[in-house]
Fold these 2 entries.
Entry 1:
Amino acid sequence: MGRRFDEFDDWPGDGRRRRTVLLPSIVAGLAVFYVLGIWTGAAISHSGHQATVEYVPSVASNGSGSSSSTTAIPGVDNTTLVTDIYNRVKNSIFTITAVSGGKSASDSGAEEDIGTGFLIDRNGDIATNAHVVGSAKTVEVSSGNRQYVGRVLNADKLDDLAIVRIPAPASLQPLPLGSVKSLQPGSLVIAIGNPFELTSSVSSGIVSGLNRSMSESSGHVMNGMIQTDAPLNPGNSGGPLLNAAGQVVGINTLIESPIEGSIGIGFAIPIDRFIQLEPKLLSGQPIAHAWLGIEGMDIDNLMQEAMHLPVSSGVYVTETTKDGPAAKAGLQGDSNANKLNSANDTADPYTILKGNGDIIVGIDGEPVNSIEQLTQYINQDNPGQKVTLTVLRHGKKITVEVTLGTWPSGH
């Protein structure tokens, strides 16, 4: 069945967890969760994951002007690869605690969000997830017996990236940044973080897949995600995913699980996306995201047959956002979209929709076969930029020029 543009597996609305609650009951099906937060009173089982690989250094340029080194860590013995990398980078990885509902964690009613971050330059800047810092302006940062007050320089909620600055001593080494381009399915990866408040924990695994797409509850889609079977659990959020050369290739962010714990399906934001946004994050500039303003479905063979559509792939527009960019450009949704929105979850959308919505099959001359392709293209654009959509309307091919808007802050 076709996949609704607004019906991907949702992330939690704000990803926050009370420190004292237990793990929730198991629910049917898989759900996607942030991997931040801690719980007490839950039994935790840890299993080892060993891998033997050939050590092959790789070098990538971050292109951001950052002072972070991009050379591989030297002197690594491939018989103890994970251990050697862990020992070399652990002092530059931190526990980040964001407190809400009080000035400190000891205040009555205060809640803590606990995640991970890692040093990226000699100015004391730490990369982490936006959902780790939340709306906090300052956070508690610690590593071993070292404690700092970190200032949140900037956070991009849609990309789930943030930078925190601490008065780091000059002796601390920034972690070398690599590139997702150094990875392929089967590549060894290493995750370091604070799962369930077990600080400086290391796990390893392989790259299970690349270029995965995950949707937030707002409908915004994050593209290019790294999928790994390296165990990730609440508290790993914001921590580094490293390759066999000891370079950061991703920022651990999500798990897909029915139990809010690792079942071997974890996701990391590619470090390339962070490098791209790093200058804006450091400057404190707000980061705007391009917005088309539609809801839609992936067309497949079943949908084509059931709704008598002229193509077996593309994006079927069910609805356009009122006064949004697509609506202003004249893009048309299905005339029965309101009935679909009010139908129960078990209703068959193919029997409700009329089949008279526009079908997007291209953008700027590039073919579009799915929502994933469409959003991946738009995510590379800027608000105010014009794109030309190739559209099938009542079986006839037309072009629609859309001026992309800014993703609404309330979404």
Entry 2:
Amino acid sequence: MSTASPRSDIAIIGAGMAGLAAARRLRANGHTCRIFEKSRGVGGRLATRRAGDLRFDHGAQFFTARGNAFRKALAEWTAEGIVAPWFDDTHVGVPAIGAPVRAMANRFEVQLETQITSLQSVEGGWRLVDAQGRVHDAGHGAFSAVILALPAPQVLPLAETAGVPMPGLDDVRYAPCWTLMAAFEEPLPGPDRHASPEGALSWLARNSAKPGRDPSPETWVIHASPAWSRAHLELSPDEVTPLLWDLARTVLDTDATPGFLAAHRWRYARVEQTAPKPFLWNADARIGACGDWGLGPRVEAAFDSGDGLGMIVASSLSRASSAAE
């Protein structure tokens, strides 16, 4: 008689939307997950920069929903008060863009500031090794499966340490993005949003006008275009800040002096070339990968990739457990 448990300890590397969507789906199927995140907080590009009392959603700006799965999730989050409609068919987290991701993360064990650098195959599954040389397992044995919920360029070296191929990820391409954050004591005139796909600045938004935000001091988030960001990618934030503000001042048509200015560089901001598949799963090795790289540059794409992988992993582990009985 088999003593295999229907529950499995699964390691998820990356606490952004894709990783947490995978964890959410696996938890619904009776599996336990432990999540590792190299940053100080969860959310990935669903990020909010804090500077004293100031808040800037300086990564992803909003969500849209095209499919039923993400529509259902948005409806649940809206009912919980952590998502609200913004303009047209867009939504934002409340009181910050990453609110739904943080709500999902609260249901799991998340180990922050832990950068996993290699995977070790051991009897029963996998152990993880971090940048400080610490070894992580499930506490009572190996992790039965590992999910890499990371940008494609970060998936590849980790998968290589496990000897697991990730077909198609070499072809994924991202556009970088320099982001400028600006704050003002007095409101600026004009509309709350400026979108200019052809200009040096692709997006400018009055962050303080989003639902659930403090309207004062006034805060703005400004995204440079992919072309401008690539041309200035290796400059420092201090070098980029005045360049971006000179551009933004013209678009905003203002002579106001910001009380706060800071720039942030996103190397993997927007997927330009996707992978052939929405996610990857190696059933023999029990290692998978997910991210918006599988479907496109949208928050929903990350959710769908992680949710889809979670379903496949749950089904695969269930079949393996049944075969062992």
